[in-house]
Amino acid sequence: MFFFMQAEYYASLNDDLVNRDAAMRFADQAVERLPGVPGVLHLAAEIIADYSDRQPSPDRDLLLTADRRVRQAIAISSDGYARYHATLARLCTLRGDFAGAWASIARAVDGEDSSDPEYALRIGSYQLIRSRIQYVQETEQLRSRQEEASGELRRIRGQILEIMDLLAAVIALITTAANIASGQSARAAGGLMTLTGGVILLVFWAFHLLIVDTPGTRQRLVVLALGVMLVLGGWARMG
C-alpha cells in the first residue's frame, strides 16, 4: 500500500518531469505487489496517460502497458467504475484508436450515477475528454490530407519535369532532322521529315500511355498505327 500512496502523492504534484517519473516508478512497484487490485491498476494507467499527454511523441509500448492495465481493472471490477472507461478513452486517443476512444467515453458517461453528488463534475471532465478526442482526430485527419496533397504536388512536379525533358528532346530531334533534310533531295527530305513525324508521334503515344494512362484502347491503337505508318512511309521514301 505504501507504493500506491507514494504514486498517488507524486501524481498529485505539479507536472514536473521528476514528479511524473517518480509517480510511474511507484505505480509500477504497486502493480507488482498488488496486481489484482483494480484501483492500483487504474492509477498506474492514469499516471501513464497524464505523462503521455505531455509528450510530443508518446511511447507506444508504454501506452500499450497502460491500456492493458486499465482493461484489467475494468474486468476485475466487473465494469463497476465509469472513470476507468474515461482513462481508457484517453489512452485510445493517444494511440490513434479514435473509434475505441469514442466508445469508451460513451460508456463512461452512461455508467455514471446521476444521483452522485460529483456527477456534474465528472461529466464535465468527460466532456473535456470528448473535446480532446475530437481535436486530436481532426488534427490527424488534417495532417493526413496535407501529406496526400504534398505527395500529389511532388508527383505533378515530377511529371512536369518529365514533359519538359521530353519536349526538349523532341525539339532537338526536329532541329536535327531539319538540318539534315536541308542538304538532301526533295524526296529524301520529305521521307526524313515524315519519319521524324512518326517517331515524334510514337514518343508522345508512349509518354501518354505511361504517364497519363487514360482509358480508350481504340484511340491508342489508332495513334499507334498512324505513328508506325509514318515511320514506315518515311523510311520507304528515303530508300
What does this structure look like?
- With 239 residues, this protein is an all-alpha fold.
- The chain folds into 2 domains: 2-141, Tetratricopeptide repeat domain (Serine Threonine Protein Phosphatase 5, Tetratricopeptide repeat, Alpha Horseshoe), CATH 1.25.40.10; 156-238.
- Helix content is 84%, strand content 0%.
- It is built from 9 helices and no strands.
- It has helices at residues 2-12, 17-33, 38-53, 60-76, 82-95, 98-111, 119-181, 186-212, 217-238.
- Helix 1 (2-12) runs parallel beside helix 3.
- The chain starts with a helix and ends with a helix.
User: Would you give the CATH topology of the largest domain?
Assistant: Serine Threonine Protein Phosphatase 5, Tetratricopeptide repeat
Using DSSP, what is the number of strands? 0
Tertiary shape: rod-shaped
CA-to-CA gap between the ends? 101 Å
| Overall number of structural domains | 2
Taken as a percent bin, the fraction of beta residues is under 5%
Secondary-structure element order, as H and E?
HHHHHHHHH
Q: pLDDT average, as an integer?
A: 81
Report the C-alpha radius of gyration, rounded.
35 Å
CATH superfamily of the largest domain: Tetratricopeptide repeat domain
